[in-house]
Amino acid sequence: MSIRLQSLALLVLGVLVQNSAAYFRMSCSRMRIGRIDPVVNFGKVSPHVHKISGASNISPNSTFQTLQTANCTSCEIQADKSAYWTPTLYYQYPNGSLLEVPNGGMTVYYLGRGDNRSAIVPFPPGFRMVSGDKTLRSYHTTPVTYQQNRPIADRVSFACLDRQPQPETPLMTNTQCINGLRAQIQFQSCWDGTNLYKPDNSHVAYLSGIDNGVCPPSHPVPLIHLFYEVLYGVTDVPRQPGGRFVFSQGDLSGAGFHGDFLNGWDEGVLKEAIDTGCAVDQDNTIDSCAPLLRSRVQDLEANCPMLPDEEKVGGLIAKLPGCPAITTGPESVPDLGCPGEGAGGSGTAAAVGNGTSTTRVKARRGGVSGWE
User: Fold this and answer.
1) Is the CB of residue 228 less than 8 Å from the CB of residue 218?
2) Residue 185 near residue 228, CB atoms below 8 Å
3) pLDDT tens for residues 305-320?
4) Which terminal residue of the chain, N or C, has fewer Cβ atoms less than 10 Å from its own Cβ?
5) What is the C-alpha separation between 209 and 182, in angstroms, rounded?
6) What's the pTM?
7) What is the mean pLDDT of the chain?
8) Terminus-to-terminus CA distance in the chain, angstroms?
């Protein structure tokens, strides 16, 4: 059954407006799917598959400088050449084969959050970060945020969009969702003001309430708050008794859902959007924010077509690429990659191109427009 999302998007929008001082959001179609992660595995093969939106030249070797040369972006605002990615969701059949779950991209929110939101600064060139822990297989009540307000695990949530409203959950507990399963992740909004990236992500910290509150003294610089929504067509997958949904790093629980951000913004445009209140002082659509509207496009797939898969990672596949163990938890599981690629997927980036192109499954057109 096809998913129609406009009315659901309005509901989501209302919830966000209630909880936020201001925001803008943009739809992003898919740009690539593959074992690519230039934040965690720069220049190497990632141990698991990601679904990537953003700059058209995203690769294992991407940096802020290379993203600036992209011909286009699969997101609405062409002045934003950032890259955004999350793990791919599959459905595993009893015989072990897996089918990529339909998805057409994500919605990215830029929100003015925090008690010091008037001092928010744009992401500097070279900035990158990861939210979430790909190794988790269960919900953890510790560690907690600054002032011990919330478990950091609350950064991840799932919304089952069914005929009747369902409460959000921290794990992927309900996949009988007629209008799709939406994975959501909140990012860190507090920066140490010095480091553009640290492998343990200690250059950034969460607000005391994760999606609002105060920054710890160790990370005094407030950043715009990033929030991803990723909608999966779980009811568009032909199911079989004994089948199950699993994220690309072998996670059956959803606890290991994560998001990466590699900044590619035209710094002047993002600064102007913040300074004019587009995401800090008032609720905005892109239509009402002049700095963003100047480079906006709406037909995302026509403007910036998805790149072909270089390794067979989509459609129906025999096993998870990268050789992750599929586990139920509760123990955490290291993300090691296939033998010969080294710990953490340290094979060369050229290995990503060793597969064949994949059969396509139906995909939702970027943002909130519905399914093909």
Assistant:
1) no
2) yes
3) 999 988 999 999 999 9
4) N
5) 21
6) 0.88
7) 87
8) 11
C-alpha separations of 319 from 52, 91, 314 in Å: 20, 11, 11
Distance of alpha carbon 46 from alpha carbon 53, whole angstroms: 16
Cα–Cα distance, 226 to 274 (Å, whole number): 13
Can you say how many angstroms the Cα of residue 130 is from the centroid of all Cα atoms in its chain? 9
pLDDT at residue number 148: 84
Which of 192, 219, 198 minimizes the C-alpha distance to 208? 219
* 18 contacts 8 by C-beta, under 8 angstroms: no
pLDDT in tens, 344-363: 544 445 444 333 333 333 33
Can the peptide bond before residue 94 be classed as cis, meaning omega within 30 degrees of 0?
no
Strand (E) positions, the chain?
A: 22-29, 32-34, 50-54, 83-87, 89-92, 98-100, 105-112, 128-131, 156-160, 181-186, 190-191, 204-205, 221-222, 225-232, 244-247, 259-262, 316-317
Q: Which residues of 233-264 are buried (b: 16+ CB within 10 A; e: fewer)?
A: bbbbbeeeeebbbbbbbbbbbbbbbbbbbbbb
Rounded Cα distance between 348 and 42, Å, is 10
Judge whether 121 and 221 are in contact, CB under 8 Å: yes
* Cβ neighbour number for residue 353 with a 10 Å cutoff: 11
Residue 245, φ and ψ in degrees, nearest 5: -90, 140
Q: Residues near 100 by Cβ (< 8 Å), separated by ≥ 6?
A: 33, 88, 89, 90, 313, 314, 315, 316, 317, 361
Question: Which residues fall within 8 angstroms of residue 342, CB to CB, at 6 or more apart?
Answer: none
CB 207, CB 213: distance < 8 Å: yes
Structure tokens at 198: 């640290």
Q: CA 148, 154, 157 angle in degrees (round to 5)?
A: 170
- Of the pLDDT bands very low, low, confident and very high (cuts 50, 70, 90), residue 22 is confident
d(CA 184, CA 207): 17
Does residue 143 have a cis peptide bond before it, meaning omega lies within 30 degrees of 0?
yes
